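Thread: quick sanity check before group meeting

JM: Hey all, I'm pulling together slides for Thursday and realized we never actually wrote out the predicted structure for the chain we discussed last week. Dropping the sequence here so it's in one place. If anyone has concerns about the input, flag it before I start.
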Amino acid sequence: MTLIKFVRNYNDESTERGFQFEFYCDRCGTGYRTSFKTSATGVVSEALDVASGLLGGVFGKAARVGDRIHSAAWEQAHDKAFAEAVEEARPNFIQCSRCTKWVCRESCWNHQRGLCKNCAPDAATEYAAAQVKTEIEQGREIIRQTPYVTDKEQFKTPIRATCPACGAAVSGGKFCPGCGAPLKEDRFCTECGSEIASTAKFCPECGAKQA
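JM (edit): ok, ran it. Output follows.
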């Protein structure tokens, strides 16, 4: 008996009515499904089961005998169908001599090197990826070195996220976009009259303590 060479990366989608298999690439997972082949023994067994259900008696006994005969015949037909499916799918895959994985010829095989792309990555693809990675790293470094806060005085005054009058969300400006209430209350030094920050404890102009 001839042994059937097979791989681990396949699914058996066969049923009592026929045979079908799916083979997958070890690298990217791309799959190929073989054509469906009807099982003659499965159809015969199904016909016997129908006869048993309708008439019973002798036909019921025949259906059980048919199932036992069908089981052995089905296994033989299954082996034959699997061997044919392997040959049907084989042109789409190739085995790497270095890592021994079966990969798809379309996406995962380096034709120039004669190895899979895990063992011999495509140079142009790797260069492009490295170039993009370098550009991103350089861009991040430029961003880290760029001073974005130019007006440091703005942080001396508390920044409001909501309107003190109506509670609506605000994103800057002097007045609430919801109710029009002023978002910043002017405050002046009690001693010299200079405008000071709302949180100031001492006047920056005359040094007077604020209440």
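AS: nice. The radius of gyration is 39 Å. Residues 10-116 form one domain.
JM: adding both to the slides.
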